[in-house]
Every structure is written in C-alpha cells, then in structure tokens.
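Tutorial handout. Part one gives the primary structure; part two gives the three-dimensional structure as tokens.
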Amino acid sequence: MKELRNICLLLAAMATVVFFSCSNDDIDLPDIQTPTTYNFTRNGQTTVSFIGQMERIQMATELINAMLDFDNATAVSLLEMYRNETEAGGDANPFSTEELNASTRSVKSKVAASRDFFSTNTAEGSVIKADFERWINEQVTEVFSNENTLAEAGTAGQIADGSSTRYVNANGLELNQVVNKGLIGALMLDQIVNNYLSPAVLDEGDNRANNDSDVLETGQNYTTMEHKWDEAYGYLFAAASNIANPIASIGANDSFLGKYVIRVESDPDFSGVAAELFSAFSLGRAAIVAKNYTIRDTQADLIKTRLSEVMAIRSIYYLQQGKLSLELRDPDYGAAFHDLSEGFGFIYGLRFTRRFENNEPYFSKAEVDGFLNDLMGGTNGLWDVTPATLDAISEAIAAKFNFTVAVAGS
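Part two.
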C-alpha cells in the first residue's frame, strides 16, 4: 500500500478520489522548494502564529481529563470547560492555568463552525454543539453516579479492560472517549479542511490582493492569508514540542488529531502520511509567500484528502478491534467497548471529512447517522452489536476510499 502515499491532486475535476503514482516532486514548482521546517519570517521576525488553536487544544485536553475526575468534576464545571463562559453558581476559572482562564476563546465556539459546511447550516451546527453538551452532562448524571457499580446491559458503571477500568453508560459507551474522538472531527478536522484551507476563507475579501502586496494585519507581522493557513497548521501540530519541526514529537502531548495521524503513520501500510502532511503544509505556506496560489491549493487538496483518510482508517480500525474482542469465546466487553467508543467518535467525525474536488464530505449526515444507529441500534447499544454489523459498517466506510477493511483494521 505504499502507493497510497503518492497521489496527484491536479486532476481535481474528477468525481472520485483515485490514487496515482505521482507526488509533489512530479509537479512543476518553479522557484519554490518545500521547506524542511515550518519557519517563516519577515524582517527577521516570525510570521507564524496559532495561539487560538494551541489554547483550544489545551482546553479540550483539560476537559477530557476532567471527565474522569469523579471526586471534583461536576456538570457545571465540565460544561464551563467546554463553553468557557461563567455558569450560574459555577467556577469562572475552570482551567489549570491563568492563561486559559483569561482567554476569551472556547472549544464550543469552533465546534461545527466551518465556513464551508456550517455558515449557512447553523441548525445542524447547533445540534452538533449540543451533542457534546449532552455527552458531558450524561457523564456526570449517569456515569459518575454509578462509579462503583458493575456495568451490565442497561446499567452504567465500571467494566474491566485488562488492568484498566473503563466507565460506561447504560449502552456501553465511554463518553469521555466519545467526546475526545468526536472533537477530532467536529473541531480540529472541520476547522482545518472546511474552514482555514477553504478558498472562501483564504481568499475572502481583499486577502489575495493584500497578500500580493504584503499588506499585514494591524499590529501583526503576517498577512491574513498567511495567518489563516497557520491556524490550520496549528490544529494539527500546535501540541508538538517543536512546532517548526514537529514530526518527531507530534502526538506525544496531543490527545487529538496529531496523535492519530501518528497512529496511522505507525501502520506500515500507511507510513509516510505524517511527513506528507507536514510537507504539504510547509510547501503551501511557502507558496503563499511566493504568491503562487495554484501550488497553495494543490497542497490544501492533498491535506484534505489525507486527513479524511485518517478519519476513515481509524474508524475502521476501532470497529475491527472491537469485533476481535467480541468474537472471543469469552467476549472481552471492556476491551470491545473501549475500542467501539473510540470508533463511535471517529465515525461521528466522518461528517467533517472533505472531498478535495467539491464542497462535499465523503459521508453525508444521513450516512453517518445510519452508521451510528447501526452501531447503537440494539436495545442496549453496544451490548447488542454483532460482529456482522461491525463488518458492514467497516465495508461501507472503506468503499469510499482506496484501501480495504483488512488493511485499515489491522
């Protein structure tokens, strides 16, 4: 499957994604070399900034951790972490650092908030935002209150997963995993591929003319177009210890998109995806500096395709791993439900994938809802799901891409 890593996205008019044996090296790139680091300067000072993305990743990380803080977290405090607005009777400083508590940013404000998918579809965006609030509330009202109860079909509580203890709702879902993996799609992926890398955002208003003339944002050292591209980069790489050369540390301090790009990278069938994404971001940013928008858009298309693949691969992977645990002579429900809860979150995120050749996701809302209903449709949710159902969902996801269930699920 090494050829999967080499794709020519210049044939953008095609209706489906087809993998070709070509790469950035095959494209005529006059006067632009792919930078080896994400380091761009003007007058000796950096032009790269993605503070907002870094803060939201940190906020989301604290929220996910707090969802297992049975002794201290409350529905009010958890929702405050998600909304970052003082609740009645709540803590106006829910985070562990002064910087985050002083921030006016929030996780919720950027969930399902992309220009291309949700600016004229605010009703669905509101439903998606509310989904996360519902899962957060349910973690407290159903799971926290059953911390010391042994989980069984129809009853929330704890369940063993090897040496680990998992905490699930009455349908077997680990809601902290659902929120964690759900944000990868609804926040990180949506903002990257449907917002910041969208021509509607990059070229909004006078952005292209201002970039051509090096007109900077007021009080800043970057053009608006440069900054929008950097913000997309931040949602993938901001948590790396070396943000200019992040591959060695991507995922180490990140529970979100960066972590799972590296998980896909670790599969020999998909090795090279992390470096390819970094190169595409770096070359696209260099193209903005060089005012070459054809190359910029080609790299944006590659990023959209690769990140959409990551979501599909991890969806299939977790479904198949959950299936293996259910097929044991003595089913390991703890391991299965952990994997399937992660799979639920990644499947939820398929709604935010992006075909490079049009303004559509790989999967419609109806398709994603259908997958989730099939996964959870029994009376007791995951307690009732069958290996055959997991295979059927996996096959339907893989059918949109050029890899098999066997390859993605191993």
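Part three, for discussion. The chain has 16 helices and four strands. Confidence is low (pLDDT under 50) at residues 1-27.
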